[in-house]
Automatic annotation (TrEMBL):
Molecular function terms, GO-annotated: ATP binding; glutamine-tRNA ligase activity; sequence-specific mRNA binding
Domain named Glutamyl/glutaminyl-tRNA synthetase class Ib catalytic: residues: 90-396
EC assignment: 6.1.1.18
Top-level taxon in the UniProt lineage: Eukaryota
Name assigned to this protein: glutamine--tRNA ligase
Signal peptide start-end: none
Alphabetized SUPFAM superfamilies for the sequence: Nucleotidylyl transferase, Ribosomal protein L25-like
Domain tRNA synthetases class I (E and Q) anti-codon binding, first and last residues per copy: 509-567
Keywords noted in UniProt: Aminoacyl-tRNA synthetase, ATP-binding, Ligase, Nucleotide-binding, Protein biosynthesis
GO annotation (BP), single: glutaminyl-tRNA aminoacylation
Skewed-composition ranges (Basic residues): 30-39
InterPro entries to which the protein is assigned, alphabetical: aa-tRNA-synth_I_CS, Gln-tRNA-synth, Gln/Glu-tRNA_Ligase, Glu/Gln-tRNA-synth, Glu/Gln-tRNA-synth_Ib_cat-dom, Glu/Gln-tRNA-synth_Ib_codon-bd, Rbsml_bL25/Gln-tRNA_synth_N, Ribosomal_bL25/Gln-tRNA_synth
Taxonomic classification: Eukaryota, Fungi, Dikarya, Ascomycota, Pezizomycotina
Similarity remark: Belongs to the class-I aminoacyl-tRNA synthetase family.
Organism in which the protein naturally occurs: Pestalotiopsis fici (strain W106-1 / CGMCC3.15140)
Length: 626
C-alpha cells in the first residue's frame, strides 16, 4: 500500500499561489478559475482582455539545464574575441587585487577568464595583482584562491605581480634609456594644470620631461635608494600628450611608497603602478587574450603602447561589461560598515553577495556559472535584479537536489487509532536516479502552524476542524476533530485528528514530520535591503536595511531522510566542491517541500544543525512567508 501512496503523492505539483501540493487536475482547475477571475476583474476595469495564461513552457528534462552550458563561449563577445585572434593555446589570467573578498561580479570575471581558456583547451593563471602594499592581507590571498577552486577551476599557475618587481624595474630603466620615461617632481595641482582643459588652456609638459637620460636614470635610482619621500618624485612615461585619450598623457609608472610589502618585505620603497605593471606581466606570462572590464577601454592604448616599447610578446586586451546586482551593496567599505555595526554577522553572512557569503548560504557553484552563462558576455554593463539570480539558483536546485520534509513551526497532530508504519519516499520524484529512503509515519505527527486554521473558509484547503487534508506520503488523509490552545498565548498547542478513509483524493497535501524527528534551527533570509537601490536611500544605505532580513525558527523539525542526504553530500556533485574534498556543510542541500531550498550552515555543530534558506520555491514567497 505504501508504494501506491508514494506513486500518487510523487505526482503532486506545487500550487505556487497557495504553497499547497495538489494533483495535476486540481492545479489545472485552480489555474482556470483564477484566469477567469482575473479576466472578469480586467473587464470590470474596461481594459481589453489579455490572454489569460502564459503559453505552456516546452517540456524540459528535469535534470538538464535549458541552455547550452558553453553558450557564452560560442556566441557574443568571447566568440568575437577568439575569432579575432584564433591562436593555440589560449592563455588568460584572472588578476585580482588581494585587497578584499571577491564578490558576485568577480565570479563573472572568473567564469570569463578561466572558462574561456578551458573551453579552448588553454590555460589560465591566477595572478595576484599585488603592487599596492598598503591594502594587502594574507587572508585575502587565501580566500581568493579558494573561491576560484570552489567555482571549479584550477589555476595553471599562481603568480604574483610582485614576483616581477626586479624585471619590471629593469624595464623601467630601459624605458628611460629609450628616452620614453622621466622622473617628475610635480605636485597634483601642477599635474592637473598640465592636462589642460577649459580653465587651464592647452596641454603641456613640465620642465622635468626635458632632462637627459643620465639625469633621469640617476634620479630614478635615487627614488629606489630612498633619496625621495613619497610624492617628492615619481617616474612618468613619456607618451603622446597630443593624443585625445588621457591615458596617453604621460602616466605614472613608479611611485615612492615607504611601506613594507607582503611578499618582498623592505626590499623596495618604490612600487610600479597598475598601468606599468599589468600589460608587462601579461606579456611575461604569454597571455594571448587579456580580458578585462570596460573601465579599461581607454587604457587599451597605453597597454599596447608600453608593451610595444619594451617587450616581444603582445597580448590582446579586450573589454567586456561589468556585472552589477541591484538591491545590494558590493563595495568593501560598505560591507565593512554592515559588519562593524552588526547588521550582518560577518563578511560571509548569507545575506551578502560576497562569494564566501553566497557559498555559505548554499548556492552551488554550478548555479553561479549557469547564471553568468545565461546572462551572456557582451560589452554592455549588466545590471541585474536579485530576483533574476534567485531564479537561476532555483532552477538549478530543482534538478539537482533531493527533497525532504521540514516543519518550521511544528504543532503536534495526534491521529486517533493510527499505527506506526514505514513508508518509502523518493528523494526526488522527478529524478528516479536519486533513489528513495524509508521514513516512519507515527500516530503523532507534526505539521506547520500555518497549515492549520481554527476557523475554516471556502477557499481554504488545508487543515481545520472537520476538514480533511492529505499528508504527503502518509497512508490516509486526516480530518481534524478538535484542538487545544494555550490560554495565555492563544496559540494552538495540539490538534486531534482521525484518518479519513472515505476521501480518496484530498484536494491538498501538506508536509509533516514524524514523532522523534531531529530538531534544527532554520534561518530564513529575505533581502537585506528594502529597496532596489539602497544607495539612493535618504541618509544612505544603512537607512534602507530590512528589519526582517533574517527570521529564525529555533525549533523546526527535519525528517529522518536528512541523515542520508547529509552522508551523500555534496549535492550536486559539482566539480569545484569535489576538488576541495568532500565539500563544506553548505554542500548538504535539499528542497524542504513546500517551504524553500536549504543548506547546512557553518554554525552547525555535532549536536545542533543550523539550516540556511538558499532561495524560496517561487518568486516572492520570501515576502509573504518570511
Ligand atoms: P572591486 O572594486 O569591486 O573590488 P576591482 O575591479 O577592484 O573590483 P579586482 O580585484 O581588481 O577588483 O578585480 C579582478 C578582476 O575582476 C578584474 O579583471 C576586474 O575587471 C574583474 N571584476 C571586478 N568586478 C567585476 C564585476 N562587477 N564584473 C565583472 N568583472 C569584475
Ligand atoms: Mg581594483
Amino acid at each position: 500500500m505504501a508504494d501506491a501512496i508514494t506513486e500518487a503523492t510523487a505526482k503532486l505539483l506545487l500550487d505556487e499561489e497557495t504553497g499547497e501540493m495538489v494533483s495535476k487536475n486540481e492545479l489545472a482547475k485552480r489555474t482556470k478559475k483564477r484566469a477567469k477571475k482575473a479576466l472578469t476583474a480586467k473587464n470590470k476595469e474596461n481594459a481589453p482582455p489579455k490572454p489569460a495564461a502564459a503559453a505552456p513552457k516546452p517540456k524540459e528534462r528535469a535534470d538538464e539545464p535549458s541552455l547550452d552550458p558553453e553558450a557564452m563561449f560560442k556566441q557574443g563577445f568571447l566568440a568575437d574575441v577568439h575569432a579575432e585572434r584564433p591562436v593555440k593555446p589560449v592563455v588568460t589570467r584572472f588578476p585580482p587585487e588581494p585587497n578584499g573578498f571577491l564578490h558576485i561580479g568577480h565570479a563573472k570575471a572568473i567564469a570569463v577568464n578561466f572558462g574561456f581558456a578551458k573551453y579552448h583547451g588553454g590555460e589560465c593563471y591566477l595572478r595576484y595583482d599585488d603592487t599596492n602594499p598598503e591594502a594587502e592581507e594574507e587572508k585575502y590571498f587565501v580566500a581568493i584562491e579558494q573561491m576560484v577552486r570552489w567555482l571549479g577551476f584550477s589555476p595553471y599557475k599562481i603568480t604574483y605581480s610582485s614576483d616581477n618587481f626586479q624585471r619590471l624595474y629593469d624595464l623601467a630603466e630601459k624605458l628611460i634609456e629609450l628616452g620614453r620615461a622621466y622622473v617628475c617632481h610635480c605636485n597634483d595641482e601642477q599635474i592637473k594644470a598640465q592636462r589642460g582643459g577649459e580653465n587651464h588652456g592647452p596641454r603641456f609638459r613640465c620642465e622635468h620631461a626635458e632632462k637627459d637620460v643620465e639625469t633621469n636614470l640617476s634620479e630614478f635610482r635615487g627614488m629606489r635608494d630612498g633619496k625621495y619621500k613619497p610624492r617628492e618624485a615619481f617616474l612618468r612615461m613619456k607618451m603622446d600628450i597630443t593624443d585625445g585619450n588621457p591615458q596617453m598623457w604621460d602616466l605614472a609608472a613608479y611611485r615612492v611608497l615607504e611601506k613594507p610589502h607582503h611578499r618582498t618585505g623592505d626590499a623596495w620603497r618604490i612600487y610600479p603602478t597598475y598601468d606599468f605593471t599589468h600589460c608587462l606581466c601579461d606579456s611575461f606570462e604569454g597571455i594571448t587574450h587579456s580580458l578585462c572590464t570596460t573601465e579599461f577601454v581607454q587604457s587599451r592604448v597605453s597597454y599596447e603602447w608600453l608593451n610595444k616599447q619594451l617587450v616581444e610578446h603582445q597580448p590582446m586586451q579586450r573589454e567586456y561589461g561589468r556585472l552589477s546586482i541591484q538591491g545590494t551593496v558590493l563595495s568593501k567599505r560598505k560591507i565593512m560598515k554592515l559588519v562593524q555595526e552588526g547588521y550582518v554577522r560577518a563578511w560571509d553572512d548569507p545575506r551578502l553577495y560576497t562569494l564566501i557569503a553566497i557559498k555559505r548560504r548554499g548556492v552551488p557553484p554550478g548555479a553561479i556559472l549557469e547564471f553568468v552563462n545565461e546572462l551572456g558576455i557582451t560589452t554592455a554593463p549588466t545590471m541585474i535584479q536579485l530576483a533574476r539570480f534567485d531564479q537561476t539558483i532555483r532552477r538549478y536546485l530543482e534538478r539537482t537536489v533531493p527533497r525532504l520534509m521540514l516543519v518550521l513551526d511544528p504543532i503536534p497532530v495526534v491521529i486517533e487509532g493510527a499505527e506506526e508504519v514505514e513508508v518509502d519516499v523518493p528523494f526526488n520524484p522527478k529524478i528516479a536516479a536519486m533513489g528513495s529512503h524509508k521514513i516512519k509515519f507515527t500516530p503523532t505527527v507534526y505539521i506547520d502552524r500555518s497549515d492549520f486554521r481554527e476557523v475554516d473558509s471556502k477557499d481554504y484547503f488545508r487543515l481545520a476542524p472537520n476538514k480533511t487534508v492529505g499528508l504527503l506520503q502518509a497512508p490516509y488523509p486526516i480530518k481534524a476533530v478538535s484542538y487545544s490552545k494555550d490560554e495565555a498565548t492563544g496559540k494552538v498547542t495540539e490538534i486531534r485528528a482521525v484518518f479519513d478513509k472515505e476521501t480518496k483524493k484530498p484536494k491538498t497535501f501538506i508536509h509533516w514530520a514524524a514523532a522523534g524527528s531531529r530538531k534544527v534551527e532554520v534561518r530564513l533570509f529575505n533581502s537585506l535591503f528594502k529597496s532596489e537601490k539602497p544607495d539612493d536611500a535618504e541618509g544612505g544605505f544603512l537607512n534602507d536595511i530590512n528589519p526582517e532580513s533574517e527570521i529564525v525558527y529555533p525549533d523546526a523539525l527535519i525528517e529522518s531522510g536528512f541523515d542520508e542526504v547529509k552522508a551523500r553530500a555534496p549535492w550536486p556533485e559539482a566539480a569545484g566542491e569535489s576538488e576541495l574534498g568532500k565539500g563544506g556543510p553548505e554542500s548538504v542541500r535539499f528542497q524542504g517541500m513546500r517551504v524553500a531550498y536549504f543548506a547546512v550552515d557553518s554554525d552547525s555543530t555535532d549536536d545542533k544543525i543550523v539550516l540556511n534558506k538558499i532561495v524560496s520555491l517561487k518568486e516572492d514567497a520570501g515576502k509573504s512567508q518570511g
